[in-house]
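Subject: complex prediction, re-run

Hi both,

The earlier run crashed halfway through, so I resubmitted it with identical inputs.
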Amino acid sequence: MANTTQMLKGLLEGCILKIVSSHETYGYEICERLIDYGFQDISEGSVYPILIRLEKKKLLRSIMKESPLGPMRKYYYLTEGGTEELAEFISSWDKIKNNIENVLEG
Amino acid sequence: MLAELQLKQIRFKQQKKLNESNLSLYKSITSYIQNSYLRTIEKEEILQQIMDMMLQSQIENKPIKLVVGEDYKEFCRSVIEEYMKSKSKIYWALNYLQKYLIWMVLITLIMLLVDGMTSITVNQFLLANMVSLISIPISRKDSQENASTAPIPCYKRIYFKRDLSSSAIWILAAGIVMILFSYITEDKLGLNINNYKISFSAGIPYLILIILIIGAIEIYKRISDIKQQS
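This time it finished cleanly. Structure:
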């Protein structure tokens, strides 16, 4: 299962879109949420690069505001494209989940 | 330019809040990112985010590896790659050409200055070109690999050696081209081109042209960056 990491990273993109869709959020908070959901190993070091990718693909947009800690912080929002992508992700995930469950149930 | 300076000032002010180990890691990351080909504003954007995440993990007493991962170089590479991937091949080719022209003009001007602003030989001009061509990949790569302030683990030392040897290959290749050039022009064609003098006054129109090209590339780069952000 050498490609598990790669596959999970793809799924992580969908999960990040979902987290951003619920409310205005920023890099560290997204990391924390993913860890809370049990994605610690896979999210280490990969959340911030994914955020950049999603923004470059115009699925997310961001606004820089001063963070309470001092530096400038990027707050992320879903774009129209991001909303569509998230809907697509949810429907493909449902399909995959059903298919796998069917296979496992024999 | 103003935005970049303001961001830099914020970083200098805020980095004092980092504890010793985080500061050392932050400095290594800064050095790695600064030595990439990204634009100053992009580097600042990245470093602000990293500093913010580091400060928060420090306050919450959580390990920074949750954000950066086990290997900060790997993290920096993937961040830089995301920015680089989003730009076209033409952008990077023009970027390289621009850097090369800037180096070439600067080195040629320094050589002229040493010579009293009168002239330089073809040989010196060739050398300026060679140095400009090879200095772009070498200066960035080696500085990135030297960025580590922590003791370098064994596997990273292998990386370092590989990059050093690739630098050596560049220098060797440049040297061979120069020797070949003088061999062909002097021995085969019987020309002593290498010692021909190029006078400063004759070079001025070319200098203006090159500066215009550098400026045009800069305008192209800025326009394509703005297009991407909107």
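The mean pLDDT of chain A is 89.

- K.
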